[in-house]
Amino acid sequence: MSTAGTEPVTAATQALRAAAARGTGILAASDELDDPRDCDRVPVVVTAECGNGWDDRELVPAMGGLT
């Protein structure tokens, strides 16, 4: 697949789609809502921080995005 003269983001997207079409799993990270629209699964990662000395009662809600 040639991507000469193609915008870098478009070339990367084409390469990823070609790899996915061959059955390769793709893990992409983005903060743009439109980026995962072609995905068949979208894991969501919540950013939270527990300070020094954390315990399960603090960590578990943070993992669920409840802090």
Short description, anyone?
The protein is built from two helices and no strands. The chain has 67 residues and is mainly alpha-helical.
Topology:
Blueprint: H1 8-21, H2 56-63
Description:
This protein is mostly helical and 67 residues long. It has one domain (8-63). It is built from 2 helices and no strands. The chain has helices at 8-21, 56-63. The mean pLDDT is 80.
Radius of gyration: 18 Å
What does the overall shape look like?
elongated
Helix content: 25-40%
> Helical segment tally?
2
The largest sheet, given as strand count, sense and whether it forms a barrel, is:
none
Q: Residue ranges: pLDDT <50 for 5 or more in a row?
A: none
Look at the structure and give the mean pLDDT: 80
Span between termini: 46 Å
| Total DSSP E strands | 0
Element-by-element helix/strand order: HH
Give the total of domains: 1
Strand content: under 5%
Name the quaternary structure. Answer: single chain
Secondary structural class: mainly alpha
